[in-house]
Structure formats: structure tokens, C-alpha cells
Design brief:
Blueprint: H1 4-8, H2 13-33, H3 46-55, H4 57-82, H5 89-114, H6 119-145, H7 155-177, H8 183-199
Helix pairs in contact: 2-4, 2-5, 4-5, 4-6, 4-8, 5-6, 6-7, 7-8
């Protein structure tokens, strides 16, 4: 039997949303702060500057990937919170686990930027994305099982949220698996998955989906 304190803890979703916004903003800021510009001592002309910036290509690519990743998962979490009537202690800790994975993304991004041609670095980056998706899916399943979803939320919305997470994670896994062909092919596939969810193209659907 849960104690009274455990029953009343974590009810306010606004506080959880505020914490999430702050952590996402901080993680996004860390991404750009981690970019390393060439030092003035190494550059003695326009061509050298352009060459030095071109050499930073892996950093810019991983920065863009991770910014898109954080944006996609921030939007996904906010969508879930907007459809919840209230929270619970357990739901709060599930989301804290999700936010933990958010704080780790700058680290896995730095690792991938430094070792972008290594499959292990790409695998760790994908695992970070997998944990994010797993925690978000667990959150919604917990909310549905414990009747925390707003009563006026259509059933198709719940199915759409679950389907979106599962399909996205399947695509991410497929993209990560392409690293066994070549890491750059894998990275390109992951970026395409991200752009699909950012741009939300409807060319393949007869009608817009939730």
C-alpha cells in the first residue's frame, strides 16, 4: 500500500514540463558550446581558415544530428504531457529517467564527433536514442494503464503516439545497423529519419496522420 506522501507526490505536470524545458535548453546549449573552433595560431590566411572549418565537418554534422534529436524528443514529450490529466510519483521518475538520457546526449555526441568512423561510437549514440524512445514509450504505456490520460483524448491519439515511437525507433535501429556497411551511410540514414519527423512529409499518406 503506497504511503500518503507517495500518493500525492508528482501530481503537478506543469512543474515536470518546466524542468524538462530547462534540461532540454541546457543540453542544446551544451551541444553548441562543445564545438571547437580553430585557434588563431593555426590559421594564417583565408584558405587555411576554410580548410580548418572544413576539417570540423564531423562536429557540425553531429551537432545538427543531436539538435534535431533533442527537438524531436522534446516535442514528443510535450505532446504526451499535453494529453495527461495529472501525474504520479512513478510517472515523474519515468520522465526523470528520460531526462537523464537527455543530459547524456551531449556526451555521446562528443564521442561520435571525435570517432565518427568508429562503429562503437555510433552504436553508443544509437543506444542513447534507444533509451530516449524507450523511456517515452514506457511513460505513455504507464499513463494509459493507470488512466492518467485526459478523458476527452480520442483513442486514435493514443495509438498514434505509440505507433510514432515504435516506427521511429525501428527506423533508427535500421539506420544504425547500416554502420556495418559504412558509418557514413548509417549517419546519412539517421539524418534522413530525423528530417522525416522534423518536416513531417505527407507525400506517402492519403491523409494527415496525428
Amino acid at each position: 500500500m503506497p504511503t500518503l506522501y507517495n500518493r500525492i507526490q508528482g501530481r503537478n505536470l506543469d512543474r515536470l514540463a518546466a524542468l524538462s524545458d530547462g534540461i532540454f535548453a541546457f543540453a542544446m546549449t551544451l551541444l553548441v558550446l562543445d564545438l571547437r573552433l580553430p585557434s588563431a595560431a593555426q590559421v594564417h590566411g583565408e584558405r587555411e581558415l576554410l580548410a580548418a572549418l572544413a576539417a570540423l565537418g564531423p562536429q557540425w554534422i553531429t551537432y545538427a544530428m543531436s539538435f534535431l534529436t533533442l527537438g524531436i524528443f522534446w516535442a514528443g514529450q510535450q505532446t504526451q504531457l499535453n494529453h495527461l490529466a495529472e501525474g504520479t510519483r512513478d510517472l515523474t521518475w519515468i520522465h526523470l529517467g528520460f531526462l537523464f538520457a537527455v543530459t547524456v546526449l551531449p556526451l555521446s555526441t562528443r564521442l561520435l564527433a571525435e570517432f565518427i568512423t568508429y562503429r562503437a561510437a555510433l552504436g553508443i549514440y544509437w543506444l542513447n536514442i534507444l533509451v530516449l524512445g524507450t523511456m517515452l514509450y514506457w511513460s505513455w504505456m504507464y499513463a494509459a494503464r493507470n488512466r492518467l490520460i485526459k478523458a476527452d483524448t480520442p483513442e486514435e491519439v493514443s495509438h498514434s503516439i505509440c505507433r510514432r515511437i515504435l516506427i521511429a525507433q525501428a527506423w533508427y535501429a535500421g539506420g544504425a545497423a547500416l554502420c556495418f556497411i559504412h558509418p557514413w551511410i548509417s549517419i546519412a540514414a539517421i539524418v534522413l529519419v530525423q528530417l522525416n519527423y522534423v518536416l513531417a512529409p505527407r507525400l506517402w499518406w492519403k491523409k494527415p496522420r496525428l
